[in-house]
Design goal:
Layout (H helix, E strand, L loop, with lengths): L2 E7 L7 H11 L4 E4 L8 E5 L2 E5 L12 E3 L4 E2 L1 H13 L6 E3 L4 E2 L2 H9 L1 H6 L6 H7 L15 H15 L5 H16 L3 E2 L10 E5 L24 H9 L4 E9 L1 E5 L29 E5 L2 H11 L7 E7 L19 E4 L9 E2 L2
Length: about 350
């Protein structure tokens, strides 16, 4: 019987979904890892045998040798995908990537829009074109993964119209980015496949993006991501594949983080240790990574939101970064019975252990 293991962040992202996914991959080496939301803005860090990789356009099983699948709910940026392909290949990771035909394609014009829209910048942006891509695809100017393997003249015509849609300035820099974008599309060995490709695997590991508190339907608008970050999309895919054995892994650090603007409770300066491998550091769009004391009631609320969509046979909690900050988690406040509670030191998944 097929089984699914779904990794969900309970905060504002950066909870440790990458190392949790890698941990599950170590237990299920014949599985495939599926991204079911978000895209190239992910920064899921895995360190394995002295090698470090930040997974964005590949799922977090790739360094360990597992194949990746990006669903129709994801975005793909061919230039960033090709750059990461070269990095993974050098590290001897698995560069096999299947992409649903209806995955949305981010273009240099979408990145330009994200970085030049003043309202968007105020509300928060990672600067990688995710929000612009999702909004554009709600209208007539769509671009899907299937278009990347069609006639190039058709693709170029669609790109021209997307540029017209945004009214972009035709700078030399943007021309070079579009040229590299097209070059990368030519170089990539595209594996465009619907969900039938997943039927060859007995275990499916679903890797979430960001966290429930950034969900486009449940976060505090407008400082949200343009995606369903709950298990909603993963559960829909499980239903299509008739998978009934579904195990949830809810992930949180032992403190709160947020990378970008917006509301966050208990924010304070914190003296962390053993965090030299922190991936989410300062950038010009999201600024510094922010910290706060863990709020168990908010954690419970995020979990209750996700359980609107999920019907799990098992429910687990993963608390990461236990070696970075001394804070006891008040499990009594969670008022939820977990099958297992895991604790993790960062960044290597080999430190995972059951603590209950």
């Amino acid at each position: 019987m097929k089984k699914a293991k779904i990794v969900i962040g309970l905060g504002f992202g950066d909870e440790g979904k990458g190392i949790t996914t890698d941990f599950l991959c170590s237990q299920n080496p014949e599985a495939i890892v599926i991204r079911f939301s978000g895209g190239q803005q992910a920064a899921h860090t895995v360190i394995l045998n002295g090698k470090k990789h930040v997974h964005s356009s590949f799922a977090s099983g790739a360094l360990r040798g597992l194949p990746s699948y990006f669903s129709e709910h994801c975005t793909i940026h061919p230039s960033l995908l090709y750059n990461e392909f070269l990095e993974l290949k050098e590290k001897e990771g698995n560069t096999t990537l299947y992409i649903h035909p209806l995955a949305k394609i981010t273009t240099p014009f979408d990145v330009w829009q994200n970085r030049n829209n003043s309202k968007n910048l105020v509300h928060g942006s990672c600067g990688k074109g995710i929000g612009a891509t999702m909004k554009r695809n709600e209208g007539p100017y769509k671009l899907f993964a299937i278009d990347l393997v069609g006639p190039q003249n058709l693709l170029i015509e669609k790109l021209k119209n997307i540029g017209f849609y945004y009214g972009v300035s035709n700078t030399i820099e943007l021309q070079n980015e579009v040229a590299y974008f097209l070059e990368c599309i030519e170089r990539i060995d595209w594996k465009i496949a619907n969900y039938n490709a997943l039927k060859n695997y007995e275990t499916l590991i679903f890797e979430g993006s960001q966290g429930v508190l950034l969900d486009m339907d449940h976060g505090v608008f407008p400082n949200v991501t343009y995606a369903n970050t709950t298990s909603k999309n993963a559960i829909e895919i499980c239903k299509k594949l008739d998978i009934q054995d579904v195990e949830l892994f809810y992930v949180s650090r032992c403190y709160i983080t947020r990378h970008g603007s917006g509301w966050m409770p208990n924010e304070k300066e914190m003296q962390l240790v053993n965090n030299e491998e922190e991936t989410c550091i300062y950038n010009e769009f999201q600024k510094e990574l922010r910290f706060g004391e863990l709020d168990e009631e908010l954690l419970l609320h995020a979990m209750q939101i996700d359980q609107i969509y999920s019907k799990a046979t098992k429910c687990n909690l993963v608390i990461t970064c236990l070696d970075q900050y001394k804070q006891e988690v008040n499990f009594d406040k969670l008022k939820t019975k977990f099958d297992t509670i895991y604790g993790s030191y960062s960044p290597e998944s080999k430190f995972f252990k059951a603590i209950k």
